[in-house]
Amino acid sequence: MAYTKDQVAHLIDHTLLKPEATEQQIRDLVDEAKRVGTYSICISPNQLPLPDGVELGEVKLAVVCGFPSGAHHSEIKAREAALSVEQGADEVDMVINISDAVQNRFDAVQTDIKAVRDAIPGAVLKVIIESAALTDEQIVAVCEAAKAAGADFVKTSTGFHPAGGASVHAVALMKQTVGDALEVKASGGIRDGKFASELLDAGATRLGLSSSQAVLDTL
């Protein structure tokens, strides 16, 4: 399917998650998001509250949680998520406990997600499953755990794992698993419009992009 720049822009979480990101880079990120018309910006929790004078306008604010490893106590993830919402976040992108997932401990995965869900009842919760590090069977089970825990999205990747980022196969499998109950966010390694379009065709309804303008320019 062919997508316009405006259509895709409204599905983008314009992302800056480099640990060395500066206040000026956050200001630039917001300016670009407003200029391009992205749905949101996605940043690290240490960047909250936003710098003085920064106004998002219609752009939403997403913040990562338990990032990038997911290897945090559930209580810590829950408090981190709650603090981010207290400081203005509309959405939280949490990383699951990947160790539990690869060991097929899906009840534990669900419990971890539920802890964050309960901490931010009024915010959108996206669950990063690190799909490239999981088997198909594990992807399905983790998506089912996210659905049972009350998440709003399942998300492919942090973009920081050596196993890789988003794939069309993973997005299609995730969408097939969650159906209309949850949405699917594709992130990690999306650098051109062709790949972005393929991910949307596979069922993604949100894209995590750090090079938003470059992707839009290649649609």
From TrEMBL:
Pathway stated in the Swiss-Prot or TrEMBL entry: Carbohydrate degradation; 2-deoxy-D-ribose 1-phosphate degradation; D-glyceraldehyde 3-phosphate and acetaldehyde from 2-deoxy-alpha-D-ribose 1-phosphate: step 2/2
Alphabetized UniProt keyword annotations: Cytoplasm, Lyase, Schiff base
Xref: Pfam families: DeoC
Class in the EC hierarchy, top level: lyase
InterPro entries: Aldolase_TIM (IPR013785), DeoC (IPR011343), DeoC/FbaB/LacD_aldolase (IPR002915), DeoC_typeI (IPR028581)
Enzyme Commission (EC) number: 4.1.2.4
Domain of life: Bacteria
PANTHER family per record: DEOXYRIBOSE-PHOSPHATE ALDOLASE (PTHR10889)
Protein name: Deoxyribose-phosphate aldolase
Source organism: Ancrocorticia populi
